[in-house]
User: What shape does this take?
Amino acid sequence: SDIAISSAARYQTIVHNGTVFRNRSEGVYDPRDRGAVLDGATDDTTAIVNTIGDMPSTGGTLFLSGIALISSTITIAKPVSIVGIGSSNSNLDSDATLATKGASGFLWTGGASTMFDVNGPIYGVRWESFFIDGGAAATIGVDLDRIRSSHFRNLRIGRFTTNCVKLHTSSVTA
Assistant: This one.
């Protein structure tokens, strides 16, 4: 795939196979630079964790241009935006071939656990245009606690044994 990243005053523009994605200039991080294959068959957990770990405490944007196979919980405790290239029009409950549909997302291969544990206080993240597939084994897709002023758009989340998304109502303290 062809990916180009360029910066302008307050935005970074990512072009993937002719499609333009525009992000705030908080820094774009490509997990392939840290060893991810994103083919839906190779375990990319370590590369995704390292990509998030390499971001400053102020966060950044993880650009997902393929299918990341995940085998253990990804913990996020800073403002990490995730932008993919599409979430697929497929039904996650009946279609096991998302990798062939030009989508990007996270596919679970671990046991009964949470895929994403996002614990704030975190402000201003954006998750857009990808899928989260629990493989009918993960218990919770995304566990969100103390997330404020954030945007979630064009996400497909499915095939979890308990909750696709778990929201906590705890408050942020000063």
